[in-house]
Automatic annotation (TrEMBL):
<dbReference type="InterPro" id="IPR011663">
    <property type="entry name" value="UTRA"/>
</dbReference>
<feature type="domain" description="HTH gntR-type">
    <location>
        <begin position="11"/>
        <end position="79"/>
    </location>
</feature>
<dbReference type="GO" id="GO:0003700">
    <property type="term" value="F:DNA-binding transcription factor activity"/>
</dbReference>
<dbReference type="GO" id="GO:0045892">
    <property type="term" value="P:negative regulation of DNA-templated transcription"/>
</dbReference>
<dbReference type="Pfam" id="PF07702">
    <property type="entry name" value="UTRA"/>
</dbReference>
<keyword id="KW-0238">DNA-binding</keyword>
<keyword id="KW-0805">Transcription regulation</keyword>
<feature type="region of interest" description="Disordered">
    <location>
        <begin position="252"/>
        <end position="296"/>
    </location>
</feature>
<dbReference type="InterPro" id="IPR000524">
    <property type="entry name" value="Tscrpt_reg_HTH_GntR"/>
</dbReference>
<dbReference type="Pfam" id="PF00392">
    <property type="entry name" value="GntR"/>
</dbReference>
<dbReference type="GO" id="GO:0003677">
    <property type="term" value="F:DNA binding"/>
</dbReference>
<keyword id="KW-0804">Transcription</keyword>
<dbReference type="InterPro" id="IPR028978">
    <property type="entry name" value="Chorismate_lyase_/UTRA_dom_sf"/>
</dbReference>
<dbReference type="InterPro" id="IPR036388">
    <property type="entry name" value="WH-like_DNA-bd_sf"/>
</dbReference>
<feature type="compositionally biased region" description="Polar residues">
    <location>
        <begin position="287"/>
        <end position="296"/>
    </location>
</feature>
<dbReference type="InterPro" id="IPR050679">
    <property type="entry name" value="Bact_HTH_transcr_reg"/>
</dbReference>
<dbReference type="InterPro" id="IPR036390">
    <property type="entry name" value="WH_DNA-bd_sf"/>
</dbReference>
Length: 296
């Protein structure tokens, strides 16, 4: 039978135990990778049964706070460092170095990139058709990816490209050929010059297939980037990029054009604004009435 003593605060005991361990992991009191305590030691500490402790630990496992290793115990999950992808940098053409944005990302942290893919031709569903600006049912080339850094899965994506654009060209299949990799470099090679990228960033719980591909715990969330490449007004590729939310951050450096020299406002000084924006003080000895600020 599971103990349900609430300690006077209305919470079941297994919830209180879980909250305590979670708080200690979040604060660093229980270090990343450290054992959180055996079931028997925690049961003694909380004056309860191992069954109650087991229930608390299972909640923490599902939430992704701990990992449980058979025969060894429960350990605070190692929280990966947050990796910021600067979206305004990663799509730029480069005269040297990798043409794949993912390869450039991993090079910045001195990791070794690799990826697996599966490509097939299929008909566009309404969502993909709308994103590419084509008719529903038109053929597209769909490619599913799993990206790894130093052998660890870090990102998945599904990409779609209009078959009417890439079919019969050297980039019909985006991987495995002799040409360049990366969307911008690939389309450059067939004379389609991409000049813009759109991104919509959201977050949601991971699907079963995403948890399996990215080795995520139950209850984990993912960051989803809906990305579309454009050449002028034509949408040439769209993709859903998925990364573990706990380690994913998307950064944007957005240029703000300066006005022409003749249109720039004159710089103001503190003398122009008065003292902290207050009304000018009357000159010494000036006893004349000051204007009524409320008068017309």
């Amino acid at each position: 039978m599971i103990a349900v003593t609430d300690g006077g605060d209305g919470r079941a005991l297994y919830i209180r135990i879980g909250d305590d361990i979670r708080s200690k992991i979040a604060s660093g009191e229980i270090a990343s990778g450290a054992r959180v305590g055996s079931e028997s030691s925690l049961a003694a500490e909380w004056n309860t049964t191992r069954e109650t402790v087991r229930k608390a630990l299972e909640v923490l496992r599902v939430e992704g706070w701990i990992v449980r290793q058979h025969g060894r115990g429960s350990f605070a999950r190692r929280r990966p460092a947050v990796d910021v992808q600067w979206a305004t940098d990663r799509y730029q053409r480069s005269a040297s170095g990798p043409t794949s944005p993912f390869a450039r990302d991993t090079a910045k942290v001195k990791a070794t990139p690799d990826w697996q893919w599966v490509t097939r031709r299929e008909r566009a569903d309404p969502d993909v058709a709308a994103r590419l600006g084509i008719d529903v049912g038109e053929h597209v080339m769909r490619t599913e990816y799993v990206f790894r850094a130093n052998g660890e899965p870090t990102q998945t994506s599904v990409s779609w490209e209009p078959f009417a654009l890439v079919g019969g060209t050297p980039i019909e299949e985006p991987e495995g050929g002799d040409g360049p990799v990366g969307v911008v470099a690939r389309f450059d090679s067939i004379g389609v010059l991409i000049d813009a990228v759109e991104e919509i960033v959201t977050a949601r719980p991971a699907t079963d297939s995403e948890r399996a591909a990215l080795s995520l715990a139950s209850g984990a969330w993912v960051q989803v980037v809906e990305r579309t490449h454009l050449a002028g007004d034509r949408r040439v590729e769209t993709a859903d990029i998925v990364r573990p939310a706990e380690q994913a951050a998307r950064g944007y450096r957005i240029p703000i054009p300066l006005p022409a020299e003749k249109d720039r406002p004159a710089a103001t000084t503190s003398d122009d604004r008065g003292t902290h924006g207050s009304e000018p003080e009357a000159a010494a000895g000036d006893t004349s009435p000051q204007p009524d600020a409320t008068s017309g």
